[in-house]
Please model this.
Amino acid sequence: MNPGPLMPVEQALASLLAMADSQRLAESENLALDTARQRVLATDLLASLDLPPWANSAMDGYALNLQHWDGQPLPVSQTVFAGQPGVPLQPGSCARIFTGAPLPEGADCVEMQENVEPLEDGRVRFTQALKAGQNIRPQGQENRAGDVLLQAGKRLGPFELAVAAAQGCTQLPVVRRPRVALLSTGDELLEPGTPLRPGCIYNSNRTLLRHWLDALGCEVIDAGILPDRPQQTRLRLEQLQHGTDLILTTGGVSAGDADCLGQVLRDSGRPLFWKLAIKPGKPLTVGYFGQVPVIGLPGNPASALVTFGLLARAYLLRIQGVQEVAPLSVEVPVAFAWPKPGQRREYLRARLENGRAVLYPNQSSGVLLGASWADGLVQVVEGRTLQPGDTAPFIAFSELF
Ligand code: AMP
Ligand code: MG
Model:
């Protein structure tokens, strides 16, 4: 444990990824393309086909053989539409051809119809200079059979699924879903649908994380709300030992009297780290309870969001075999001043307006609404100050799903 200085974000991430590498999910399942989105490919996808499978026309026009052409108008000996096989090009003629139609054997050039003039005798005249190979998409231009199209560990989005479909695949092998037990801690929490009691609030972290976990390919085991009692906390963590890849909790990891989750992990589990140089999100706590990894997010909604997005997300992708877990961050000019250098790495909810990052006015860790207003997070590293017009890294929220 590190009761002393706060752990830098990079070190916490490295530690989580090392933990994830030791917890990699080995099992996979075959899923229909329609249900494989947001899952992770379990084995390399090799091409079974050349793409395109045969040379075809990139234009509506006329196919001819330039090698045996004297520049004179040509009769049209066949018409090839997309989806038709076509026949070899009759010498001394051209073929009417449409986009995507297979190139007739013997043709080596396609001229677009705009540059071809039909004559009264049925022949066509080519009005522009022609080049061999023009407007032809050669067989295998995109890929050859046997090429690795997608590597194991690739997250499957619309593009990847379409690549598989183009090969005629109906199914893909994907890593099984991580099973994540989601536990909200706090005596004050009520689920929406029950009347609000004095002193209580509705549980919003549960909804945030359920949907986020789903987007990361996880199966959510909803373990409900846990009161701030060490005995019950211990019992619940014991009950979640079977069939769980991760216990993800919110709340109860600060240093207050009611912060049981952290206490129980430290007393009865195996804590790995606690207290990060991050704002919001300092109390993030990670360890094992029994055999099961536990990521204890702080309860404040913005803290839960930032620590999940930057750390827990990476863990959950890595146990599925994703190597590139860092969200893309781009340097953007900021529209605000940040005069006081901080001791923790700050993540500010911000929106891009005219190419500049504008802050949500209330950056309190207790405020959830800013996340919905914002497009992403501006990162301000320890010790940094900013003037309007300076640039800082910006991580779009879309990168974190
Ligand atoms: P804690 O981390 O338990 O000290 O909680 C910090 C703050 O976050 C408190 O104001 C809690 O009421 C609030 N909080 C904790 N859990 C949730 C939750 N699941 N949904 C919304 N707010 C929460
Ligand atoms: Mg609490």
User: Anything to note?
Assistant: The chain has a mean pLDDT of 97. The chain has four domains: 9-27+176-319, 29-49+145-175, 56-137, 330-400. The helical segments are 9-21, 158-166, 205-215, 230-239, 260-268, 301-319, 369-373.
